[in-house]
Amino acid sequence: MTSSDIVSDIASIAAKGFSSVRLYSTDCNALSAVISAAATHGLKLVLGIYISDAGISGVEDQVSDITSHFEGDYSMVEMVVVGNEAIFNNYCSGAELAAYISSAKATLQTAGYTGPVTTTEPISILQANTAELCDVLDVVGANIHAFFNSDITASQAGAFVSSSLLELANFCPGDKQVYNFETGWPSAGDANGQAVPGAREQQVAIAAILAEAGARSAIVSFADELWKAEGDLGIEQSWGCGHLFE
Description:
By secondary structure, the chain is α/β, with parallel strands linked by helices. The chain is built from 8 helices and 7 strands; from the N terminus they run αβαβαβαβααβαβαβ. The protein has helices spanning 3-15, 31-41, 60-70, 94-110, 123-128, 130-133, 157-168, 199-213, and strands at residues 20-22, 44-49, 77-84, 117-122, 140-143, 178-183, 217-219. A 7-stranded parallel beta sheet has the order 1-2-3-4-5-6-7.
């Protein structure tokens, strides 16, 4: 993807009525293009610091990327998410992630950032690691995918996300705000029990999610991600839904 592609996509996202864009990492030299385009169109950014199979080592460069690009002005940064399902993927432990969130937060605050810092995991993984994580999370977030619950139909996706957010609100003390950092429905692939992918099902599911919890949910993804492996159910490439917001 080129810088011009990024600028075009950001303009389209803004035109569709979104207020924020979530980034998963700072790699591919994308920050410059994203920051400029988002500022032009009045979008906020949810920044990501991605933890890979290399573990915690090496991610400090991403923090440096953030501080160097924003140069003390973080007015367009809504929050920073450290890791995306890093514990779930066995890239680090809960204790290791908590320690790094504290370290990254300190570095960002020294550079002038005063907003929330958090992480995101599947809700069951987050619940299993609250003892390690709650103290370092400014807000509490999870990736809540109704499709991966085999008892949930597309029309029930909104209620599932809403009830999961209520559950999430009880994980950590202190009345912290809760967010759904990744949600959607695939347009193609194989059924997961009652969860059936398809173009019509995707439309129904996303409409339900927006109605029930849209203000606290990041919808994935803007376009199909053909670079991914299809996965066991043949769905991983088929979450693109930008066309539903025309």
